Amino acid sequence: MPTIAIIGAQWGDEGKGKIVDYLAQKMDFVVRFNGGPNAGHTVLNEYGKFQLHLVPAGIFNRKVISIIGNGVAIDPEILIKEIKELKKKGISFRNLKISDKAHVILPWHILLDEWQEKERRLKQIGTTRRGIGPAFSDKVGRFGLRAGDFLNEKDFKEKLFASYNRAKNFLKPEKISFDFILKKIFCFGKYLLPYITQTEFILWEAISKKKNILLEGAQGTLLDVDFGTYPNVTSSSCTLASASQGSGIPTKEIDEVMDVVKAYTTRVGAEGQAFPTEMPAKIASPLREKAGEYGATTGRPRRCGWLDTFLLKYAAKINGFTSLAITRLDCLTGFEKLKICSGYKTKKGKTLSFEEFSISKLKEYQPVYLELPGWKEFPTACRKFSDFPKEVQIYLRKIEELVAVPIKLISFGPEREKTLQK
Ligand code: GDP
Ligand code: IMO
Ligand code: MG
Predict the structure, then answer these.
(1) Do residues 42 and 4 make contact, with C-beta atoms less than 8 angstroms apart?
(2) Which of 3, 24, 196, 320 would suit a FRET pair with 350, their CA atoms being 20 to 30 Å apart?
(3) CA distance 144 to 137
(4) How far apart are CA 392 and CA 384, in angstroms?
(5) What phi, psi does 393 have (nearest 5°)?
(6) What's the start-to-end Cα distance of the chain, in Å?
(7) Is 132 in the pocket of ligand 2 (CB under 6 A)?
(8) Ligand 2 in contact with 223 (CB < 6 A)?
């Protein structure tokens, strides 16, 4: 059985949590490999409804080993809160492992995130205020603290003090006392200690034993720090390459790349960021309400737009998708006509070839739409492709044709059972 990477194809919130929870039932390992508590992965299963920020969505399966990989930035306070809440619902954490190389988000990273956003004035990113940018900056700046540092109390204190002193240049020290933070963070560290290990070794052994491994991506390709809509992106990588870098699994061992695609497009962040297929408010608002398009982490309303297959083609190139998982098809029920963006025009009306496209110029492009018939109702139980209304089948076939990648999973409700393998 293969190693499968689950990657968000758009601006995040595609339904990765649901797809990972569905596939995890047949897995031996589930590995979160990027981002941090900026992620909000919703899972609805027999235990209830959960919004996971750091815990891998494989945790609901007792036999699955859930790994928080080295590519993740961990806020210990958020992680411990999440663990405690899940434990209360009967979820076992016997099989959780945390990479000793995962970086730790410190309280000043969160303050810095807020401060940096204010400094950007009219050019705010609209971050989740979870300290992501400053924590990953410290990682590449080689100032970061890692989960493995919790293993040595003296070293930890020294490193934390150095980090605190650096942060003092930016922050009012009276706001935050070092001794208080040290005590608090060290308590968190003690709690997490039993889970911390060299997770890459566990994964290398798993590969040699041909175990089933699912790599759970956070965010989405268009939020990738290199290939996304920079600077309005997150601070870690979200493409396939990060699945390897953030877990220690060699790229050649990843057999399948499944990109999760919402049947339309959403984006959350500051106002005015590029979004060519954004719907006018009179269409977007009812869809947002009906579909509950509000951020799982921050509760912010998500901007809604039509499906953009031009951007999906771009994401397919970067990630080398081998298959697509389409989610939230049911949310498009009731539209008389559906639009799909198949290409772009420049402001002067020139049709853009794929080679001429630049993600940095996204704001300059206007979408070219195809119109497809909508569907009035969505059957609650669909066991095979032919159970879907004819119009749904047409919509899906058009996506496959335009993106040139086969659809393997179709999701038509938040619950596990509302998933069909094509
Ligand atoms: P993620 O960050 O990619 O895991 O996605 P989020 O959890 O932030 O947002 C996806 C939302 O869509 C969640 O509320 C899911 O429960 C919900 N969802 C996922 N798949 C479907 C689907 O096929 N239909 C409906 N109606 N909701 C879905
Ligand atoms: P999941 O895994 C949607 C967005 C933020 C902001 C930008 C930078 O649930 O799909 P950051 O806090 O990372 O510095 O914010 O990225 N963003 C997400 N949007 N889903 C996510 O994760 C996101 N993680 C970050 O809204 O625009
Ligand atoms: Mg989300």
Answers:
(1) no
(2) 320
(3) 8
(4) 12
(5) -60, -40
(6) 18
(7) yes
(8) yes
- Three-class SS of 122-175: HHCCCCCCCCHHHHHHHHHCCCCCEHHHHHCHHHHHHHHHHHHHHHHCCCCHHH
State residue 175's pLDDT score: 67
Which is higher by pLDDT, 300 or 246? 246
- pLDDT (tens digit per residue) in 408-421: 999 999 999 999 99
**Joined tokens for residue 67:** 């790994």
| Helix (H) / strand (E) containing 408 | strand 407-411
- Per DSSP bridges, beta strands 419-421 and 407-411 are antiparallel
Amino acid at 40: G
Say how many CA atoms lie within 13 Å of 398 toward its Cβ: 21
209: burial class by Cβ within 10 Å (0-12, 13-18, 19+)? exposed
pLDDT tens-digit series, residues 106-119? 999 999 999 999 99
Instruction: Spell out the SS3 assignment of 61-101.
Output: CCCCEEEECCCCEECHHHHHHHHHHHHHCCCCCCCEEEECC
Q: What is the DSSP letter of 60?
A: T
Q: How far apart are CA 165 and CA 187, in angstroms?
A: 21
Token pair 């595609």 is at which residue?
A: 14
> Residue 53 catalytic?
no
From the CA of 11, the nearest ligand is 2
Q: By alpha-carbon position, which residue is closest to atom 16 of ligand 2?
A: 234
DSSP code, position 365: -
**Inter-CA distances, 55 with 17, 52, 342, Å:** 11, 6, 36
Place of tokens 């020294």: 158
Contact yes or no for 345/357 (Cβ under 8 A): no
Atom number in ligand 2 closest to CA 13: 10
Contact 38, 134 (CB under 8 A): no
* 8 Å CB contact between 149 and 104: yes
Counting atoms of ligand 2 from 1, which one is nearest the CA of 218? 2
Nearest to 79 by CA among 191, 177, 199: 191
Q: Are 411 and 419 in contact (CB under 8 A)?
A: yes
Closest ligand 1 atom, residue 291 Cα: 26
